[in-house]
Each structure stands twice: as C-alpha cells, then as structure tokens.
Amino acid sequence: MAAAMASAAERAVLEEEFKWLLQEEVHGVLRQLQDILKEASHRFALPVGGTEGPVKQENFILDTSSTDQVKGVLMLQGDALCQADINLKMPRNNQLLHFTFREDKQWKLQQIQDARNHVNQAIYLLTNRDVNYQFKTGSEVLKLMDAVMLQLTRARNRLTTPATLTLPEIASSGLTKMFTPALPSDILVNFYINLNKLCLTVYQLHALQPNSTKNFRPTGGSILHNPGAMFECGSQRYEVSHVHKVECVVPWLNDALVFFTVSLQLCQQLKDKISVFSSYWNYRPY
C-alpha cells in the first residue's frame, strides 16, 4: 500500500514536472532558437546599418600558399559573386593571363542562397503559432524539433557538401562567358562553397587529337577533378593537364555553421528531455 502511494506521489510529481516542461521550458528553448537563427539569417543577408538596406560588398584575397599559379581577389555580395579578378600563370610558357568578370555579370552561389532559405524556413516553423500557444503533448514538440532539425541539417549540408559536377557541366555552366577577356578554350573555372571557404578551381586542358592513341574514358561527376581526367565537349575531346585550387575564408559562413551546430544541439537536448519522461509511462500521454 505504501509502495503504491509512493508510486502515485512520484507519478504526480513527474506529471507536474512534465507539465512545466511543456508550458515553460519548451517556450524558452524556442525563443533561444529563434534568436540564434535570426542571427544566422542576418549573416547571410549582410545588411548595412540595420536589418534592411543594400547588401555590402566584401573583398577576399585568394590564399596562394598551395600554388603560385593562380592569384586574385573575389568580391562577394550576399549570395552573389559580383567580381573576380584573377591572374593565371600558364605552366608551359609562364605566360601571365589576367581575367575579370564582365561589368554586366554576377555569379549566384546557389549554396548560400539555399542555406539561407532553409534557415528562414526553420525560423518560420518556430514562429508559426500564436504567442500564447501552449503545447499539449510531448509528441507535438518532438514533431516540431524534427522539422526544424531537418531544415538546419539541410542548411548545413548545402555549405559542407558541394554539388558534384562533370567537366562538361562545368564547361556549360555559363562561367566561361563571365569573363573579359574571354577565357581561352583550354581553361575551365569553377566556384563553390566548402564549409566556411569560397573556393576557385582552375582547370587547364589539353585538346586530344582525333588520331590520339590514348584510351578515352570520360570522367564522371566530382567536386574536384584530377589531372588526367577526360571529357568531351561538342566534337572535341579534352584531357585535364593541370588543376589549381585556391580559396579564401569567409568569416560569416563560419559563424553560420557554428549557429547551426548550437541550434541542432538545443533541439536534440529538448528531444532527449521529453524522451526521458516517456520512459516513466507504459502508455503514451505525451
């Protein structure tokens, strides 16, 4: 009898604690998540003088510690690469080539745009309810946390996992038409985000002769293609002779990745607390 009473009392205490969790702690975590993700969203927008206004331009000097064949400056404006000033030293004859974006061209970095869209969708999920709304079940909170975590994971993955491209896809991406003077036919370039870095890869190509005795094997998709990779563009076959990868750190991308990690941890901690309470009941009141 005493054990049953103790069990009933313990159950009542747990139910009160769980009720407090749903009514108070959940809302505190949601407010914390909103604040963090709004900061993350602002990093992507890079507003000047407040939350509105034009997006500022930032210049980034490419790190040449890995190669001195490519030097340059990239200008980033939000999710757009609005200028690229590149010097390329040709290894065969040490000829120095200089290219810049045409004045009427910008290159959208879809990874940044997609990541910010996922962040904003997570914010929408967190704020899409009445200010006085009360959660009635734990499963309701778990469902919300799963939805928010899905958007944050997608946002993080867009920055940490660049899309693989074939060499013909890079050749037809439009980047070859961005520059003045026009890129020679034996040069390909690709820009992408990897973690907190803006990366530039320059491929120097060797045109294969129709009577070449080389065994032609087209290369599949990759983030970074190696020398020796082959592909066909139009009626011409090419082989990659040299690859130069240079990059620059974008500090606000690093901030965004930290915000994603902290937010995902908060979501998981709240899920874990609700799961602990569920273990005390054989049925599922949550």
Write the layout of secondary structure elements.
Blueprint: H1 2-45, E1 58-61, E2 70-77, E3 80-89, E4 96-101, E5 107-108, H2 110-127, H3 138-160, H4 167-171, E6 179-180, E7 187-194, E8 197-208, E9 230-233, E10 236-249, H5 251-278
Antiparallel strand pairs: 1-2, 2-3, 3-4, 3-5, 4-6, 7-8, 8-10, 9-10
Helix pairs in contact: 1-2, 1-5, 2-3, 3-5
Throw out a few tags for this protein.
alpha+beta, disordered C terminus, 10 strands, 5 helices, single chain, six-stranded antiparallel sheet, four-stranded antiparallel sheet, 286 residues, 41% helix
Q: Could you explain the architecture of this structure?
A:
The chain contains 5 helices and 10 strands; from the N terminus they run αβββββαααβββββα. It has helices spanning 2-45, 110-127, 138-160, 167-171, 251-278; strands at residues 58-61, 70-77, 80-89, 96-101, 107-108, 179-180, 187-194, 197-208, 230-233, 236-249. The strands form 2 sheets. Strands 1, 2, 3, 4, 5 and 6 form a 6-stranded antiparallel sheet that branches. A 4-stranded antiparallel sheet has the order 7-8-10-9. It is 41% helix and 24% strand. It has 286 residues and is α+β, with helices and mostly antiparallel strands. Helix 3 packs antiparallel against helix 5. It starts with a helix and ends in an 8-residue tail after the last helix. The radius of gyration is 26 Å and the shape is elongated.
Structure summarized in a few sentences:
InterPro entries: RAVE2/Rogdi. With 286 residues, the chain is α+β, with helices and mostly antiparallel strands.
User: What's the tally of helices?
Assistant: 5
Low-confidence runs: 1-6, 282-286
The main sheet comes to: 6 strands, antiparallel
Total beta strand runs = 10
Q: What percent of residues adopt helix (DSSP H or I)?
A: 40-55%
Terminal CA distance: 28 Å
Rg, alpha carbons: 26 Å
Instruction: Please give the oligomerization state of what you see.
Output: single chain
Q: What fraction of the residues are assigned to beta strands by DSSP?
A: 15-25%
Mass-distribution shape: elongated
Arithmetic mean of pLDDT = 84
SSE series = HEEEEEHHHEEEEEH
Class per helix and strand makeup: alpha+beta
Family: Belongs to the rogdi family.
Protein name: Protein rogdi homolog
InterPro entries: RAVE2/Rogdi
Subcellular location: Cytoplasmic vesicle, Secretory vesicle, Synaptic vesicle
